[in-house]
């Protein structure tokens, strides 16, 4: 098949050249430049004299009288068909290279060959180290994309412009244009097969993937608000008077469109249970793409496409009705207030270090009450004190009723009162479905040996997301960190939350995984808190957020060091430093060195988005640090919302763009003056 496609590619280039000649002056100007770029690309990817002939023909074909409209259309359709044929041949060649690369990787592991390593410039000012994984065309494209991102007018109306361009050019030409610009820079490909060359290139330069199928619904604000309001209010109503309700954990129409003031995070809006099932299947396909464990794929992949190092990102709001997360979050916060009133002090139940006997004293006046005794039997504790008031293990194992679980006794009367607002039997079933979906995903991840990053979301969802994620850690992180939770350091409570969760992991004996980010919802959170009248959960400024990030990271590193010094498995704590801030990355590296944590300990990794901060990611990977790229993929037209957000995000980090543009231009000039314009990236690095 590969030989047949190679022959077809050679034959096609002559045919391609013929159509270029027949188009006459239609090939002039910018179109000639476009064709030259296409030809140059395939010249570097497909062997055969046909491409050389095509390249020569472009310089001689674009003369003569104007072509007729039918000739132009004929040329256009044939061009697109032939480009696809050439692209198919190029993919065959890339797949063959992938097989060789995989085999060499396995052989090097078996033979104990030391992988290539480069010294790390912690100033991140080395353009060669930053871009040795890129062709000159890719550097030029990146520079063009960043130039566009500095235009406020274009960025502000980018979604409208993309839709208008799609209508004007038609689907095929629009797709070609996007692949030559934004899509090609920020997205790896359409599906699990077409992203493989990108994954292989990353791996050969020491970088691993976090896969995310980035197809998003493009719905109006009105539709988003309608869905959110309908899916965030219980159909059961609430007949009990509840003086303890917290406004933060109830939907407000003014903020029902959760995309408001958010440019760097995807938003899922609940439609129905079938959509949640489909989202589960998509996440599982991402896991399978990472593991590359498809029996139908004949390529040798003994360690998977990412050689056992890949990650998939998921969001809990994609798997269930948001009302359920709101109600659970409110339960958790009301439980904290209940304990504060009962025993004094602030913070999570776990931090009070109270025992079952202490609780029995508080309920002494009603100690014979059967409901109180049943409540005490369900409390989770260890020798250091109470861990949870409620049996969360039963909840994540899908065998508990929410409405019956979240009840606490009144210390004076012994009467049981519920902390959760009323929930219908149908909503109980929806919650069990959400937990079932999450269990299915995490179980699949454990079987495929792929890690799961559960993304952070808004503060009114986050207590529930963190609680459920920690229970998944307890269930699945018994021998290694499979499940990771995400902590947003722009929040005032992040350090306390991380320390509390580290304590739970230590006391319950499971591996703790955390991704530290600055956060995506800051502006929205501030506006919502002010409008609804609750305390602003956000740090006062950027410097305070940086301090929170570094303080939290330093505490994690300290605990890793303690584990290492005590002869325990240091990997019981795994941290991803997910940051585009080079000062934070430098802080992590310097602290690792100062306390004796090496990259080979495999406890700290770094992550950035595909197409952003390459000058940080690739030098880290090439120096032997565990470095990741967040890899979005999906069809062009269906990832437009993702591309729109990337443009918006780059507009907000002009300082970083300025540096990346400077390094890009420096490397392009260097290649030009050194005669390396046709440089072909080839790495011999092995990810840690």
From TrEMBL:
Enzyme Commission no: 1.5.5.2
Cellular component GO terms, alphabetical: mitochondrion
GO molecular function, one term: FAD binding
Transmembrane spans: none
Residues in Proline dehydrogenase domain copies: 197-657
Key words of the record: FAD, Flavoprotein, Oxidoreductase, Proline metabolism
One Pfam family, short name: Pro_dh
Cofactor: FAD
Pathway membership, UniProt: Amino-acid degradation; L-proline degradation into L-glutamate; L-glutamate from L-proline: step 1/2
Superkingdom: Eukaryota
EC class (word): oxidoreductase
PANTHER family assigned: PROLINE DEHYDROGENASE 1, MITOCHONDRIAL (PTHR13914:SF0), PROLINE OXIDASE (PTHR13914)
Protein name: Proline dehydrogenase
Organism: Drosophila hydei
Lineage: Eukaryota, Metazoa, Ecdysozoa, Arthropoda, Hexapoda
């Amino acid at each position: 098949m590969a030989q047949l496609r190679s022959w077809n590619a050679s034959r096609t280039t002559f045919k391609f050249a013929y159509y270029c000649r027949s188009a006459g002056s239609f090939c002039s100007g910018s179109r000639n430049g476009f064709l030259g770029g296409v030809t140059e690309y395939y010249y570097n990817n497909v062997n055969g004299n046909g491409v050389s002939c095509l390249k020569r023909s472009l310089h001689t074909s674009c003369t003569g009288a104007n072509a007729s409209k039918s000739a132009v259309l004929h040329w256009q359709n044939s061009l697109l068909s032939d480009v696809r044929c050439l692209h198919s041949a190029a993919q065959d060649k890339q797949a063959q290279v992938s097989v060789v690369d995989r085999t060499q990787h396995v052989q090097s592991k078996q033979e104990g060959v030391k992988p290539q390593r480069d010294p790390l410039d912690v100033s991140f000012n080395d353009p060669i180290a930053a871009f040795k994984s890129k062709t000159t065309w890719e550097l030029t494209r990146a520079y063009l994309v960043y130039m566009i991102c500095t235009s406020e007018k274009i960025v502000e109306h980018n979604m409208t412009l993309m839709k208008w361009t799609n209508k004007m050019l038609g689907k095929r030409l629009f797709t070609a244009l996007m692949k030559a610009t934004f899509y090609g820079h920020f997205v790896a490909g359409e599906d699990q097969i077409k992203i493989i060359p990108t994954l292989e290139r990353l791996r050969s330069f020491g970088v691993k993937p976090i896969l995310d199928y980035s197809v998003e619904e493009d719905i109006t604000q009105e539709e988003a608000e309608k869905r959110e309001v309908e899916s965030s209010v219980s159909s059961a109503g609430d007949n009990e008077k509840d003086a303890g309700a917290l406004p933060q954990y109830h939907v407000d129409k003014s903020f029902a469109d959760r995309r408001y003031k958010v440019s760097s995070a995807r938003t899922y809006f609940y439609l129905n249970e079938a959509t949640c099932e489909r989202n589960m299947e998509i996440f599982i396909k991402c896991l399978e793409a990472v593991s590359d464990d498809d029996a139908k794929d004949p390529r040798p992949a003994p360690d998977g496409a990412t050689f056992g190092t890949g990650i998939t990102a998921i969001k809990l709001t994609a798997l269930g009705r948001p009302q359920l997360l709101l109600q659970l979050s409110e339960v958790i916060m009301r439980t904290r207030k209940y304990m504060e009133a009962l025993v004094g002090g602030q913070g999570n139940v776990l931090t009070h270090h109270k025992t079952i006997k202490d609780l029995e004293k508080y309920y002494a006046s009603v100690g014979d009450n059967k409901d109180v005794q049943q409540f005490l039997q369900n409390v989770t504790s260890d020798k250091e004190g109470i861990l949870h008031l409620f049996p969360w293990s039963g909840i994540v194992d899908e065998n508990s009723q929410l409405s019956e679980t979240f009840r606490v006794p009144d210390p004076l009367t012994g009467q049981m009162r519920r902390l959760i607002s009323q929930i219908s039997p149908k909503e109980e079933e929806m919650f069990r479905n959400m937990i079932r979906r999450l269990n299915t995903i995490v179980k699949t991840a454990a079987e495929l040996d792929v890690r799961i990053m559960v993304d952070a979301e808004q503060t009114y969802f986050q207590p529930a997301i963190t609680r459920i994620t920690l229970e998944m850690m307890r269930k699945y992180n018994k021998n290694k960190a499979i499940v990771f939770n995400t902590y947003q350091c722009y929040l005032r409570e992040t350090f306390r939350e991380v320390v509390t969760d580290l304590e739970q992991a230590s006391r319950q004996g499971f591996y703790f995984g955390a991704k530290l980010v600055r956060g995506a919802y800051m502006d929205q959170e501030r506006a919502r808190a002010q409008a609804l009248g609750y305390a602003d959960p956000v740090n006062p400024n950027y410097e305070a957020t940086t301090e929170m990030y570094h303080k939290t990271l330093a505490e994690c590193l300290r605990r890793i060091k303690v584990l290492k010094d005590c002869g325990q498995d240091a990997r019981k704590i795994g941290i991803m430093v997910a940051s585009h801030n080079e000062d934070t990355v430098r802080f992590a590296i310097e602290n690792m060195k100062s306390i004796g944590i090496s990259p080979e300990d495999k406890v700290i990794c770094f992550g950035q988005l595909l197409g952003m901060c390459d000058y940080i990611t690739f030098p880290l990977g090439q120096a032997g640090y565990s470095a990741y790229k967040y890899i979005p993929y999906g069809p062009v037209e269906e990832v437009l919302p993702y591309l729109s957000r990337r443009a918006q995000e780059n507009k907000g980090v002009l300082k970083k763009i300025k540096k990346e543009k400077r390094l890009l231009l420096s490397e392009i000039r260097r290649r030009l003056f050194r005669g390396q314009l046709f440089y072909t990236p080839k790495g011999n690095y092995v990810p840690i």
